[in-house]
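Worked example 3. Consider a protein that binds 2-(butylsulfanyl)adenosine.
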Amino acid sequence: MPVRDDAALAAEIEALREEIRAHNYRYYVLDDPDIPDAAYDRLMQKLLAFEQEYPDQITPDSPTQRVGAEPLSSFGTVAHEQPMLSLANAFSEEDMASFDRRVREGLERDEAIEYCCEPKLDGAAVSLLYEHGRLVRAATRGDGETGEDITQNVRTIKSVPLRLRGNPPARLEVRGEVYMPLAEFARLNERQLSRGEKAFVNPRNAAAGSLRQLDPALTAQRPLAFYCYSIGISEGWQLPDNQSAVLDAMREFGLPVNAEIRIAHGSQDCRDYHADLLGRRGALAYEIDGAVFKVNSLAEQGRLGFVSRAPRWAIAWKFPAQEEMTVLHDVEFQVGRTGVLTPVARLQPVFVGGVTVSNATLHNLDEIEKLDVRIGDTVVVRRAGDVIPQVVSVVPDARPAGARPIALPAHCPVCGSAVERQKGEVAARCSGALACRAQRAEGIKHFASRKAMDIEGLGDRLVEMLVEQELIHDVADLFRLDVNTLAGLERMGEKSAANLVEALARAQSTRLHRFLFALGIREVGESTARNLVRHFGTLENIIAADVDALQQVPDIGAVVAGHVRAFLDEERNLRIIQRLRDAGVHWPVESASAEAELPLSGQTWVLTGKLEGLTREEAKEKLESMGAKVAGSVSKKTRCVLAGADAGSKLEKARSLGIEVIDENEFLRRMPAD
Ligand code: IVH
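Given these inputs, the predicted complex is written out as structure tokens:
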């Protein structure tokens, strides 16, 4: 780079920073970004490159300087120049009305009071000190008098400006809440669990915990955000007249202010605000635990003053708690559509999240073990918005002497079939498959699907309707459906009913591997079904095979052999198979043949390009039926490549390795007709 004039360089870098700050303001404060993320990233990259080239030009308030401080051994303390107070609580309309009455009495006013209404954000309170517009210190609330110095951590929060916009006061203390948006919280917890680390109980704990990391690099990885709700000390500035104007000014200075803030006149308006916010609580991107009402006029706030550690001019009207304690009376297991058993907690009814809850999910057995929950325990139940109530923790000290461990039932509570839980698997499942009422619809959809029995016109919605109206109970009942019954269904005319009956008749003549696949035996996919048929030839042989014999089949290990045996040991499943055969389902006799006897045994083929006369899937099926393996990429082991139109790199590679390449016509010539 050419040598530059220092002043010109500094001006250029500062202009770039200003541009980035302007975008930050639009993004975090106005919620109205005007460039795509990628363009913003490019600006940041450009600034980083500049600063790398000229490190002496780096300033502490540069947008690049959010993380960088070394880990601390402990936090310093900060004495708040003005104490950080708390708020008195209201829990009902009466509480709100008496607060309003006290305010009017205190001010000796009859007319409606103007209130600034704000969401009560559920995070951690912080104080940010700006001097000449620069963030110089951030502190926790602590006991209200003394907090901890968390400056390096707060600097990593992207919505906290390192430098204020416009013409800020010489000193300004901004107060507000650091919180974690709900979507980010869920993502963080997934990440924690996938790394084998503990999940956070709620976004508030996650936010508070993240702020108290000694290593700012760790805080930087936590998705924190900030909303400003008041100010502390300010010097060199004419305070506005009221709270809402203070917040407007903060917004002008580039600080994020919550968008749900409104002005109310009198307590009735406040009530409406509370009800409206409560109704939308579940749809907000962050957690709130109530609404805060503040007398809007700062002069009137001054006249009202404080009582013990709370202002007389504000109140927090809390929402119903989203977490409560109650007793776990019992655990029952529900069977889902795919046979998975979910433990459901039966609870002493408790009012939580605005409703009475008597059932909550325990997710799975791992969760039960992790929580170490027993019947009789006192548990913490959480219900947030429309979310299914869940047991989040156990109160260990409240465990009664007779608390009973929770056991997985040996038999499915719906159909009585054996319950299986594979080693290393979280889910326990009912082995009843087709025979289990809970799994009916899913099993039937699979049975009818294209790669299974291929029953044209029998879509998912129709299956659900047939099951709901109890017209079919299992897959064998499908073949008893007639035009009359079908034509009576919603959106089903004579013609489509007749078509479906024909499709059912067509599907009766199938192939054994399709039939096996259609049964929905766990982990028996198309290719395993094909291998089974190739090895055993007949259904009778497969039914007679023990676990050892099953494991002789290529690609079948102990787990799959176990699933096949469990399915075929279930009397109910055998009855359904028999009924299907009685209803006319049949297949041509397949000769049992060892792998080596098939014409393409031991060969690996690769398909590439567009085929015309058949789909890739059909070509694959043909090849596999002749014993070939079909691979996704060309290697020295490839025996032959079937190349359709517009074949690309795979074809080139095959040619470079001298592998045989054939086109579709040649392929069809070599394959026997189905
Ligand atoms: S005003 C003297 N406004 O609630 C006024 N607080 O119990 C003090 N909070 O520690 C705070 N949202 O963390 C205020 N819009 C809001 C708030 C809010 C949440 C928290 C804050 C404080 C606690 C007060």
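Take a moment to read the result before moving on. The radius of gyration is 34 Å. Residues 85-87, 118, 120-121, 125, 141, 177, 229-230, 292, 311, 314, 316 surround 2-(butylsulfanyl)adenosine (CB under 6 Å).
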